[in-house]
Amino acid sequence: MKKNEIVEVEITDLSYEAMGVGHVDGETVFVNNALPGEIVKAKILKTKKAFAFAKIEEIIKESPDRVKVPLRQYLQTGLASLAHLKYDKQLEFKQQQVAELLKKVHLDQIKVNATLPSPLQDSYRNKAQVPVREVNGKLEIGFFRRHSHDLVPLEDFFTNDKEIDRVLLAVRDILRENHVPAYDEVKHQGEVRYLEVRRGIATGEIMVILVCLHKEFPGLAKVVDEIKEIAGVKSIFLNHNPRKTNVILGTSDYLLWGKRYIDDKIGDLTFEISPQSFFQINSSQTPRLYDLAIKQAGLKDSDLIVDAYSGIGTIGLSAAKYVKEVRGVEVVKAAVKDAKNNARINQIHNAKYYAGKAEDLMPKWAEKGLKTDVIFVDPPRKGLSPDFIEAAVKTGPEKIVYISCNPATLVRDMQLFMEKGYTTDEVSPVDMFPQTPHVECVTVLERTQND
Ligand SMILES: C[S@@+](CC[C@H](N)C(=O)[O-])C[C@H]1O[C@@H](n2cnc3c(N)ncnc32)[C@H](O)[C@@H]1O
């Protein structure tokens, strides 16, 4: 295959990034937005040693599972790169992905349950982070075209809560009217790099964060005065990110107006969320994820449980009423402060939260002779470190409840726990991110022998 060549290809599979996979003359080709069962004419965009990337020129045979996407920009940008696949097939795709990863490491005896569907299939996100750039002389918000930093302007973000889109557009218009320059990443100049909007779905409280190159800019006070008049806005921050980087947020947040946090609810618990704290983005599905994890943990009132990678304490605090003691660990200091506050405002007295890296604190706790009954882990995409796993096992938990947003690292870590005498017979995918290829899973590893 050569660049710009047009090839006819039958799509036989879907990659974990939701690209159609086919073969031409023994070589693999990944075709953007093509679906299994389709025959397409595709233009080769890029070639590598053993594979190539291509885009559809024409669909010769269309899959019966293809659905019409409201805006082609959703597929161009990767904002909703699975939106062209019927929802029930998206759920099957996620289940299959986990099954294939297990099969690759000869763990196909472990059953992968059907993916738990999300109650909302669009407009489910309680948080948006959108780039701000100048396009054709105008400040725009949108999403980057896939594998690039070209901004595709958007007004309807499809997966965001509709109120969040309303606020994003209102802030965009305020920035335009006040002639605030958008960030230019080539020249590393301008002011506003990203807009972040978070909404407490249960409370309606909205936080606006202007991610800026400088700590202040001319006219900022007037911009803030106007943003605070937008219905629902309770908190306005400036996040200062002066670096030449693709990382969205800088390390310092300055409160410009209103509250330091917004409130939201999961089940009957209230949570205060500050700007840099992690909070599950699909509010309609979060209680179902936690219920599944807590139910499968089979908690007892004598249990000491660990909530590792605890964010603002949501899992541990949801489990606290079933157990004797909760001990949480989280690396973001502001989130630990939120977790402590959240225990207090919900009158939960058996939960303690500690700031630090889980892989540093767990070995210290194990050395001091801590004995645990159940350990909940909910790490970022890179999963757990071997040091953490080693130390966690030393504390003798009967069960490890693993909540994962990356099935590849989940399967890797499951193998390490299995080497140490833990086992599981099922993994449950939970759809936290409809219209995208992202997969969330829960599995419970039980101790079968003393190591
Ligand atoms: C997927 S989130 C889960 C948060 C929480 N359990 C929830 O459901 O909202 C992962 C969390 O791990 C934290 N984190 C990342 N690396 C960490 C580390 N090395 N040690 C402890 N926490 C870490 C992140 O700040 C984030 O809050």
TrEMBL record:
Pfam families per record: TRAM, tRNA_U5-meth_tr
UniProt GO BP: rRNA base methylation
Protein's UniProt keywords contain Cell membrane: no
Keyword Mitochondrion belongs to the record: no
Cited InterPro entries: MeTrfase_TrmA_AS, MeTrfase_TrmA_CS, NA-bd_OB-fold, SAM-dependent_MTases_sf, TRAM_dom, U5_MeTrfase_fam
Keywords for this protein: Methyltransferase, S-adenosyl-L-methionine, Transferase
Binding site residues for S-adenosyl-L-methionine: Q280, Y309, E330, D378
TRAM domain sequence ranges: 1-58
Signal peptide positions (record): none
CDD domains per UniProt: AdoMet_MTases
Annotated active site: C405, C405 (nucleophile)
Molecular function as annotated in GO: rRNA (uridine-C5-)-methyltransferase activity
SUPFAM superfamilies: Nucleic acid-binding proteins, S-adenosyl-L-methionine-dependent methyltransferases
EC number of the protein: 2.1.1.190
Record-stated family: Belongs to the class I-like SAM-binding methyltransferase superfamily. RNA M5U methyltransferase family.
The name this protein goes by in its record: 23S rRNA (Uracil(1939)-C(5))-methyltransferase RlmD
Organism: Lactobacillus porci
